């Protein structure tokens, strides 16, 4: 049977927004064992405005450095971003990069790390150099030889023991040595013995090692290579997927298809999930996100098509971010919410901060304002138009439905936050809207670092929250003029608590 999830597939009933929201929230109940190749992702951001005198290459003036868990460690990072728990079994080298990676993983909540150290082994590091948001160079340091047999035996023993405490096992194979040789076959056999489902995110062409897995996750090119069959159209994906299942006794195959989304193939049914991305910035780490959400979904005992659908939504979120990113549960909820599903301007505060960083890398000025915006009127529109005219992108934050106690004396907004957010999202001058539950917007201002902070002219600059902090990054204040009552038409002016 061929099903397209862009419609209403008859084979499962939970493709409704509210059902998917409940399914997404169940991901936090998952407990996943991840076994695979841990890496350290390093990023150097800066500007390249001149050419070296030593060679015809750009000179990168580094302004910021960032280190993140990569490879299988990024899968773990994605699982914890969903609120789930993860046991992580992997190898690092006896070097500074290994120490840095171990510390990064150890600082994550919900992770039980089992990182074995192998002497004389080099920890895998991928170092990226970026100028104005564009990649200049990537440098890889790695030692992809198979593990020493004693280390391999210990790793297998630890992973087998960890299966008893987790609900699903995920093998994240980056072809860096952890899952070399017969290690995948031994882990699959152990999972079967423990009664745990096992997922494989594969690399290379040697799929015989993955025989018997419950789910395998090749991309379209890998599927074509392994099966020797074309894998472009929906029909070809179905035929090649079923050939792979039959050849290696695998339960299901989830094929990632780039701009065409994903396809889930079982011996009896096929689901095609259209791509969910709104704006593609960086595909790095998207496969890790798919693997993490699929594993968490299976660990939470969701139907496989629902887990795959959520994985597709999460992939659409991370490719809109820069670098090795994750899809947090609030991001997925915002994308699936019936109130915000059709309003792509409405995002979480964290997503707004990430988007602002992408805009600044393009050289755009980012503006920010905050208020109740209880009843949208002409005065609000006038203020927002002034703000947008003074910057390239404007982010608006509104109070949530349950203001903290000090604010309740000022009165709770009459309209629900979802309704106010939708009204703001309909304004052409507004680029993003988010809801703040905190009493003060200061924390978001400090994280966002807006180039322009906007308030109504009824506020003295000294009284504007965050105005005294803008100098740290060169930001400025705009005290926008309010329309007089005579120009409003409804006899009201914007109050201090609104903007």
TrEMBL record:
Q: What is this protein called?
A: Bifunctional protein HldE
Report the EC number(s), separated by commas if there are several: 2.7.1.167, 2.7.7.70
Organism equals Acidisoma cellulosilyticum
Q: Which HAMAP family match?
A: HldE
List the NCBIfam families hit by this protein, alphabetically.
cyt_tran_rel (TIGR00125)
Q: Which gene encodes it?
A: hldE
Query: Where do the segments described as Ribokinase lie?
Result: 1-340
Which parts of the sequence belong to the Carbohydrate kinase PfkB domain? 30-326
> Keywords, A to Z?
ATP-binding, Carbohydrate metabolism, Kinase, Multifunctional enzyme, Nucleotide-binding, Nucleotidyltransferase, Transferase
Stated role: Catalyzes the ADP transfer from ATP to D-glycero-beta-D-manno-heptose 1-phosphate, yielding ADP-D-glycero-beta-D-manno-heptose.
This entry carries the following GO cellular component terms, namely: cytosol
